[in-house]
Design goal:
By secondary structure, the chain is of the alpha/beta class. It has a 5-stranded parallel beta sheet with strand order 2-1-3-4-5, with helices on both faces. The chain contains 12 helices and 5 strands. Helix 2 crosses helix 7, helix 5 packs across helix 6 and helix 9 crosses helix 10.
Length: 310
Amino acid sequence: MSTPLTEFDPLQERGHLLTEQVNPDSQNLDRLSPIEIVDLFNKEDAKVLAAVTGAREALALALEKTAAALRQGGRLFYIGAGTSGRLGVLDAAECPPTFCTPPELVQGILAGGAPALLRSSEALEDRAEDGAAAVAEHGITFKDVLVGITAGGTTPYVRGALQAARTQGTTTIFMACVPAAQVEIDVDVDIRLLVGPELLAGSTRLKAGTVTKVALNILSTGTMVLLGKVYGNRMVDVSVTNQKLYDRAVRMIRDLTDLDREEAVALLERSDRRVKLALLMHWTGLDAATGEQRLATCQGNLRQAIQTSL
């Protein structure tokens, strides 16, 4: 049975947690040369990919559940404190420009709010009731997905949010860097990213932060792939908001068609600078308005829209 969240005392001993243990390979860290420090970091960071491999099935389940929820009108929320929370905010912020998603579709909730992005606010993580309040403040419902991110697994703010969300039927995902045997929790998907003790004891912005960033990359990008926002390996839903992205959009169209640059630019402009719509128009002969309707019918999936138009 999972330990009730109210039993987690912020003053309790946590030395047994994997993230708090001392790494025997770095006990002479303060005596190493610059090149030895670099080599040691490289050696430790190599453990990140192995940790992701160990969590592959849980990550796949998280993708499946998240995509299913978003298809039904749900949203994806990340919640965390300190480094964990900042990583969630960063991942959420990257979704609109990369996949042209509305800002509300993927959101990051950080203990302490926007000021905590720039200034340490770790003391704010110790109140489970604040996490529960954040769930209510953001209007999170049974349709949504809430990913709680906490390296050590015990953060009351995160656990309080997950408990509140779970009572109302929200899909809950837990992401931590300690074994379930050390910190249990009752959620829909339990992702354990076991990178071992940090090179600098207890500094979970290091390997734990790196592996969390990798896992979030997989979760958000994989979800968008399943939602049809990618064609092949191209970000065809990219938001064309600056010169770099305009050039990328034109190159995508040229690479996937037989058009020269001038023709690709003209097509992009006719599609209101939407690569996905431009490609559909080119391959099917549909006008922009009809193409928009076809994509909407296919929930934005370009391959399906092409197939139903032939």
